[in-house]
Design brief:
The complex is a heterodimer of chains A (about 300) and B (about 325). Chain A is mainly alpha-helical and about 300 residues long. In chain A, about 70% of the residues lie in helices and about 0% in strands. The relative contact order of chain A is 0.13. Chain B has a domain of about 230 residues: MetI-like (MetI-like fold). The two termini of chain B are about 15 Å apart. Chain B is globular. The chains are: A mainly alpha (about 300), B mainly alpha (about 325). The interface between A and B is large, with 119 and 113 residues.
Chain lengths: ~300, ~325
């Protein structure tokens, strides 16, 4: 262990500790503690209102979730899983397609890549407003388009059938550029000789992709899949601004948020329990994806 | 980064999967996938190239830029105009919506709040982050590597929004600007980001500084921080955008509308004026504009921040943490 070089022999031992004291305490207090406290609060009944007691109630929230409220909870888990699978599949397929298409030289391609990357720099509040306008059932362009072309109308984000797919679509729109970025970086790590050799062998485009590019993209694929799974499971701000968890868009995350922070609800203990469920779900799905894909990487 | 010379790329943590992310959006790293032929392209090849270019143009503009552009167009319509022609181009362009939105939404005031909420925590996090990362990356503590690994894994612990809210209430940080700044400045997102980068700064610099009688604090401010400019710039800009865009935390922590940042303001503004789309569009664009300008000017850093987060998020995951920790220290040995 290297010794601290700074200070006098007497102060030398304390300088490193003094250096990390403020940020370290800050992280413990506002970073680590809240995360761990979620476990504790999930065993309580607490409204958070001033003067109300904090009642320890054991597993009450968990038993509640899987007895009295089980249909709501299972529904939220189901919606979360649909959301994750849909977003992950489409975002990665589109991201990879865009990467293959846009990984070219030239200024114009740099501009196209920047445009595709752009949506994610905006706040969910901005993206929410943009797509609420586009999906507006009365004066939005999509409604006019559908009405003009097929004579059908829809309430879009207000429809039980369409709200969830549309929110997923916006999520994919917002973050495809991110997946594209990682895939392009992966593509650029593939040495050119590989392709020269393969094209000498007369491999066609599709075979080139299936047998060369895709396997060599495995690390980028793993990273991307893992990040989209974890990211889309944790996403609730976007769902909140677009559909507010209504019309079948209530994922676990948004259920947590609304049960804890909606006016008139304020069930912080129950919300913490939902945050724990969210954590376990992320652990299972994210861990599963990572484990499977790492094994696949090794096998390749 | 190429400008950093011999120093390793600021990897914001160092790890196995480290693409040359900085260059991805720009054209710095030449794509290896496209073998360049010496011959001049034939007419057929050029036509094919042009066709691909047009396809990419259409995809990027129609699918990705158009939604924002469409919103912007609506902002130039008068409300009666919008009611008559909700989808087409404006008949008679007007700036009235922007001034109306600016006044009715109180965006000027909220803009200042947003700036404060974005700049103050950003600056504090950067400085404190260096002070935290330096002793850890130099290995001054017994379990420096374990500490670092633990931090990375702590990102996967349950979300702590609810306890943070309870904590903020009991510490009187709820619904107050200083309180919000304390929460966001000290929550530690990013404190450890510099550990990997500092490992790339040679220890000989420390020794030389000590021999010259340089004190610790002066050393950090005058030697280490200037050495870290690229990493600080990347993280600073990314942190700024992140804080500016944050909606959930202001929604939870700030109930008084005088304290709201623009995102929180827009969320309510949108709820109040749902049917008056030109006004909402103008407000939305006001909120988006600063970030858009920042993106155009500082694209490279933003991309790096996003991709740096990606490599930090995945390194160490699914791999032996000890290997990760020792690997990053090994790479610093190589760097020297």
């Amino acid at each position: 262990m290297p010794r601290c070089l700074f200070g006098t022999p007497r102060t030398r031992r304390f300088i490193p500790w003094a250096s990390i004291a403020i940020p370290g305490l800050g992280w413990l207090l506002f970073g680590l503690y809240p995360s761990l406290a979620t476990i504790g609060y999930s065993f309580t009944q607490y409204s958070g209102l001033p003067g109300t007691p904090l009642n320890f109630c054991g597993l009450c929230n968990y038993t509640n979730a899987f007895t009295a409220l089980s249909s709501t909870v299972w529904d939220a888990i189901r919606v979360s899983l649909i959301y994750v699978v849909g977003v992950t599949v489409f975002q990665n397929a589109i991201g990879m397609g865009l990467a293959l298409l846009l990984n070219r030289r030239g200024r114009s391609y740099a501009v196209y890549r920047a445009l595709i990357f752009m949506p994610q720099i905006f706040s969910v509040a901005v993206v929410g407003a943009i797509f609420s306008l586009i999906f507006d059932p009365f004066s939005g362009p999509l409604d006019k388009l559908l009405h003009g072309a097929f004579g059908v109308t829809s309430t879009f984000l207000g429809s039980d059938r369409l709200a969830l797919p549309l929110v997923m679509l916006v999520n994919v729109w917002m973050f495809s550029g991110y997946s594209m970025l990682i895939y392009i970086a992966g593509l650029r790590n593939i040495p050119a000789e590989v392709y020269e050799a393969a094209s000498l062998d007369g491999a066609g485009r599709f075979r080139l992709f299936r047998n060369m590019t895709f396997p060599l993209l495995a690390p980028a694929f793993t990273v991307n899949m893992f990040l989209t799974v974890v990211g889309s499971l944790g996403e609730y701000a976007l769902i909140l601004v677009l559909a507010g968890g209504q019309h079948g868009t209530q994922t676990l995350g948004i259920y947590m948020f609304t049960s804890a922070f909606n006016a008139g609800s304020a069930e912080l203990g129950y919300g913490s329990m939902l945050a724990m469920l969210q954590f376990f779900l992320t652990l299972i799905v994210g861990g599963g994806v990572l484990w499977t894909l790492r094994r696949r990487e090794v096998a390749l | 980064m190429s400008s950093a010379g011999a120093r390793p790329e600021p990897s914001l943590g160092g790890g196995e999967y480290r693409p040359h992310v900085a260059a991805v959006l720009s054209d710095r790293a030449l794509p290896a996938t496209e073998p360049r032929s010496r011959r001049r392209p034939s007419v057929a090849q050029r036509l094919r190239g042009l066709r691909t270019n047009v396809v990419c143009l259409l995809i990027s503009v129609v699918l990705f830029a158009l939604p924002l552009l469409y919103l912007l167009l609506q902002a130039f319509k008068s409300y009666p105009d919008f009611l008559q022609h909700p989808t087409g181009l404006p008949h008679g362009w007007t700036f009235q919506n922007f001034t109306d939105a600016w006044q009715q939404g109180d965006f000027g005031h909220e803009m200042i709040n947003s700036l404060v909420y974005a700049i103050v925590p950003d600056a504090i996090t950067l400085v404190l982050g260096v002070f935290l990362a330096f002793p850890i990356s130099r290995g001054y503590f017994k379990h420096s590597n374990a500490l670092y690994t633990f931090f990375i894994f702590s990102g996967f612990l349950p979300g702590g929004l609810i306890p943070l809210f309870i904590e903020a209430r009991s510490l009187h940080l709820y619904n107050s600007m200083p309180g919000y700044l304390v929460l966001t400045s000290l929550s530690g997102a990013g404190f450890f980001f510099f550990v990997g980068y500092i490992k790339g700064i040679p220890r000989e610099i420390d020794e030389a500084a000590v021999l010259d009688g340089c004190g610790y604090i002066r050393f950090i401010f005058t030697i280490i921080i200037p050495q870290m400019k690229p990493a600080l710039a990347t993280f600073g800009i990314f942190g700024f955008v992140y804080s500016w865009n944050n909606l959930i935390l202001p929604l939870v922590m700030l109930s008084d509308d005088a304290l709201w940042p623009v995102t929180r303001g827009l969320y309510s503004f949108f709820g109040e004026h749902t049917s008056n789309w030109p006004l909402v569009a103008a407000g939305t664009f006001i909120v988006a504009a600063p970030i858009l300008v920042l993106f155009i000017l500082l694209q490279r850093y933003l991309v790096q921040g996003v991709a740096g987060g990606a490599s930090l998020g995945t390194q160490g995951v699914g791999r032996d943490p000890v290997a990760v920790a020792t690997e990053s220290s090994a790479s610093s040995v190589e760097a020297r």
